[in-house]
Amino acid sequence: MLDELQGKGLIIHHWDADGISSAHLLLYRLFNKKIVNKTPKLGNYLLTEKELNEYSKYDYVIVVDMSLPEADVLRLAENAKVFIFDHHLGNVIKEVYHNNPIIKGENPDIYPSASWIVNDFLGNNVNLFSLIGVVGDHEQRIKNNKTFNNIINKFCQKNNLQFDDLLKIVYLLDTNYKLGDKKAVEKVPRLLFEYKSADSILKNIQWNQNLRKLNKEITKHLESPTDEIDGIIVKKINTTYNIISTITRKVAWDSGKNTMVINTGFFDDKDQLYVRSTKNLESMIERGKTLGFKCGGKKEVLGIILPKDKTDSFIDEIMEFLSKN
Length: 325
Known about the structure:
By secondary structure, the chain is of the alpha/beta class. The protein is built from 13 helices and eleven strands.
């Protein structure tokens, strides 16, 4: 299907390790095509009007590891063939090729990342980049998934790697977006062609410097005061770094409790809000969309960008939802 594409192509991918790995796998297959890769403005789960105008000039568009608003996808589809490879919640967009097993009722444990879905679609054997997305989206918790724990262990044994090596690669790839360097993010999927082994990625000097800087910032915020209200962890941070998902993940997984983090420092006029919960958050994702906020996620994750004057009222709604038995 993809091999038959003609003309100019575009890959729109998420900025994290899963999105980067997925884009890399696609670029590897489509090496003989006229194709470029872009990520949306960092922190946005939508396309700006400027991006929509620019991206409408392509003959085909592949969206990977992003649940873009349906209106954005249909706008792209006016002039291009559109393909989506994703594992986030949303609705099936019938006007385009939409490969998302999760929204079609499949078990998320079988499709833990976009990179795995892309790799499966391409018919590839298990490889480093198919697993980087899996480890990136689940970290240590993927070990609770017996199927993928076995797959990862076999791959590591065959390639003389440890699980922590894969995890560090994730952290290194993620440094570019967390530091807000969009251009660096967009260079990585092609740059990875130059790396012949996991060890060569692990030795990247710039990414290791980035990681040390980020770890210092993350530690500072993890050690700052945290509130607990009715068993729900609530943490407010103010940082220009895009580390809200990292902070939320660490707090939630360390505490085992429902966790909400609000970052007031990434956007000038908006706040970032991130939730991890043992409850199914689908209804809150839909509620956010109904209110006109840009949001997405999975059953256990909600990420949302909302106007600063709407933050407190939506926090109240989330708190009420999480407090219900």
